[in-house]
Design goal:
Chain lengths: 299, 260
Amino acid sequence: MHRFMRLSFRRFVAITLAGLAVLLVSASASNAESPLVADERATRQLTLPSTASALALDRAAAVRRALGLPVGVATVRRVDDTIDHATYDEIITTNSTGQQTSVVQLNPDGRLHAAIALGLHRSMATVDDAEASMRAAAIARAADVTAAGKPTVAHSAGAGGWLLTWPRIVAGAAVRGDGTRVALWSDGTFHSITERTAGLAPAPSTPAGPAAAAEAADAFVSARFGPEAPSLDVNGSTLAWVVPNDLWNAPPPESGDRTARLAWVVEYRAHGSLAERVVAIELWLDAGSLAVIGGDVAE
Amino acid sequence: MSPGRWLRRLLPPLLPTAILPASLLAGMLSLAAAGAAFGYQASVDSNETAFDVCDGSSNDTPAKMLAAAVAAYKAMGYSTAGFTGSDFTRARTLNRTDDDWGFYVHSHGDYYWNADAGRRYTGFREDSGDCDQKVVFSNEIRDARAGRQSNLIFISTCHAADSDSTMPGAFAISKAKYDSAASAGPEFYVGYVGVQWDSDEWDFERRFWNALTDGSGTGAAFDRAMAGSFDHSYFDADWWGAYRWSGKAGPLTVSCPNCA
């Protein structure tokens, strides 16, 4: 029987009233709507001088050749990206049927920001991690992107195969989010490449040691979680460059400030009843003062 | 899933149950948002209490995720409502799901043991405004929806896109990747693989929504979001459904190179 025919009049009235409620809630919600997508997009288009346009198109064509991306009709626009806090020229290539086939993003100085091969790639073939590393290194060299040493290699569903990362290391510590990242399909075919380089604050002249950092982190957790603090076990700590945030009520960084600071990153794993609500937490402690400058939560 | 089957399932219930009353009400109340496809309902749930009050983190990311998802679904033409705190309950989610074409949730998610069913199912926790939060199991959503199709589903929880996730099936989306909506129907499911961190999820979602509402299409929006930088190098997400599809509410009625 057709679905509508099964609806009773009472249900029809109920759905109508529910529709009214949804409309009212939607109207109310729209007043508090995030400007993220509506008025304050994560990216916005800037004016691109014609001379820069020609240079970007030429450079993008060279990148596409180097990465084996298909040729097609290319369009360019300059983009201000508020997530990456970067400005780049984005070149999108479409094929003869109008389908987008690739995206190349170039910093205004011509360095590669990102390149992505668009479209679904089907292959039953697979390469192993050693072959994937070799291919990713070759891709980075072809794109003239920094990729020195041995990458971190991981299976990635989102990449469709492999994800290889060369972290940016400064003063012996990784800069979170920075470095080179290459995604390959399972058969080793290029999927995407990105390179990021954040600004860094000066490192403290005498960084605190791991014991002092652990003590400060434990004191914070005890104060913050009270009787549930024993449900959090340290899972490791490391020095890393992080961009401060306001988690744990840390003083928020000035608007637009993406300068990374050297910090002790202390990770705790939750167990018991607390694990029903949170999997793990990170505390970021300034490497000099050991003040909390942010953190993260895994849910 | 062929688009023919999609249309048969989608169009008949639409007119009587949603378009007529919603259109009448929209006209009377002058609430029609430009481009909104009234009747193509989307629900957006975000668990703010667990990640602020209950764990003491003072974490405003779930609130930002809620607002961004509501804005994005609206921009894609869904008649969207957002729920958090005591308004995001297991009962309300299950009550609304039969009418949802789009659904987003950010919460604690896992492959939970369902004592009633005697096996594990993927699920997520309600907010409920307190720290005693019930699990919404995928089999409960599946039963409530009774096989009805979905458009755009984003499960912003850990384990939602693991290879053994039972959540896509609850929304009648098979765990298969299709090149276009002409093959798969107008449907797309996104979720996270394994345990992921809030900061990375937030960056991924901002990029995804931005690209999707900018007209990139579902698969390209996913690729663009994945190609960003993340604090944790092992960040991972996955998708199923149609790579080339607009993400917009409703049946596959508009053909364009990057959306069908």
